[in-house]
Amino acid sequence: MVYLDYSSTTPVLPEVLDSYNKVTEEYFGNPNSLHSLGIKSRELLDSATKQIAELLNIKETEFVMTSGATEANNMALIGTALTYKRYGNRIAVSKMEHPSIYGICKYLEYIGFTIDLIDVTEEGVIDFDDLRRKVTKDTILVSVCAVNSETGARQPLKTVRQVIRKNNENCILHSDMTQAIGKVNISVNDVDLASMSGHKIYGPKGVGLLYKNKNLVLTPLLYGNHDGELKPGTPALPLIVSFAKALRLALKDLPKKEEVVRKYNEKIVAHLSNYPNIKINSSKYCIPHILNISLMNIKPETFIHALETDEIYVSSNTACASGEPSKSVMNMYKDETRSKTTIRISLSHITLPSEISEFLESFDKHYNELNTLR
Ligand code: PMP
């Protein structure tokens, strides 16, 4: 099998799975219980909390564990909107967001907020003129992902923040960092709120995190035992401990791992340049882990299933919008055929050179076959 769909999800690292199993078995006491089993679990929870805070260079009170990035995005956008609505009713989001952000925006519109969409350039980067236009005195929140899940386009968050602050110094910046964490060097301190997910960093599914700057107050979406708690209920200790471990491993040796991936990316791009019909959608602003191409004259579903016959797994665009045209590619190139025929090849530092060769061989075979059928 050759798995090249790491941006949809990653396999759980064996050492992370070991932690998950060990904590499930040996720390089953509820961290909120007063007896010794509870205290043992609480101590482990406290040490995982401390580790996560240190890894992200934030305070232990500045984050909340969630069920994943979708939940973190909901808490961030809806929680901010409800708290700060007295200052304005506009929220601006980029045209390169994950579908979960647009789903949340639909709800925010339904409850009375106005959503402004910020244009991107052909290279997939925020159009700063449009950002300046869209951030008004009534804009309480801007959400710009750190890395786009379909094309890998990376946004200059520091500059985004500066531009926003010039227009409205109270405007809050959220970034969905799900596709950036563990791939490139990035700091949550560049924004006010940041979302991430365990299953994109070789951790388990069902766990994620929302970073929240200490000065912000979010309206909770769920209610439980304690006032103001954003995530009430029994902490998911095995998931939280595994997340902490996955995060520690993901942040280790980042430049080295990125370099491995860059070489794979360059090899594939060089190979695909032999095919004049194929368009490379990833620009120079895209991280090497995501390579988005358009086949132009072959349906992506057909091609994905053809590769699958050789046990090679890639996707058409983001897993959460499979089968639909790529919104990100459409917003970059304004070309319908290009946006309807995308293939996303997502790479990892654990990919082997032999897997890249196998992929290219299978690609050639199926591309030439399907290309001549037309
Ligand atoms: N945001 C981005 C950028 C993503 O790529 C994904 C996963 N496809 C999500 C959010 C959703 O993450 P989760 O599955 O943890 O809810």
Describe the structure concisely for a colleague:
The protein is built from 12 helices and 12 strands. Strands 2-8-7-6-5-3-4 form a 7-stranded mixed beta sheet, sandwiched between helices.
What layout of secondary structure does this protein have?
Elements: E1 2-3, H1 14-26, H2 36-56, E2 63-66, H3 69-84, E3 90-94, H4 99-110, E4 114-118, H5 128-134, E5 139-143, H6 157-167, E6 172-176, E7 193-197, E8 208-212, H7 237-250, H8 254-272, E9 279-280, E10 290-294, H9 300-308, E11 312-313, H10 327-333, H11 336-340, E12 342-346, H12 353-372
Parallel strand pairs: 1-11, 3-4, 3-5, 5-6, 6-7
Antiparallel strand pairs: 2-8, 7-8, 9-10, 10-12
What are the bound molecules?
Answer: 4'-deoxy-4'-aminopyridoxal-5'-phosphate
Radius of gyration: 21 Å
**H/E element string?**
EHHEHEHEHEHEEEHHEEHEHHEH
The gross shape turns out to be globular
Tell me how many strands there are.
Answer: 12
Helix count, DSSP H or I runs of 4 or more residues: 12
Distance between the termini: 29 Å
Q: pLDDT average, as an integer? A: 96
Strand content: 5-15%
Q: Spans of 5+ residues with little confidence (pLDDT < 50)? A: none
Q: Can you describe what's shown?
A:
The chain is of the alpha/beta class. The protein is 41% helix and 13% strand. The chain has helices spanning 14-26, 36-56, 69-84, 99-110, 128-134, 157-167, 237-250, 254-272, 300-308, 327-333, 336-340, 353-372, and strands at residues 2-3, 63-66, 90-94, 114-118, 139-143, 172-176, 193-197, 208-212, 279-280, 290-294, 312-313, 342-346. β3 (90-94), α4 (99-110) and β4 (114-118) form a beta-alpha-beta unit. The radius of gyration is 21 Å and the shape is globular. The mean pLDDT is 96.
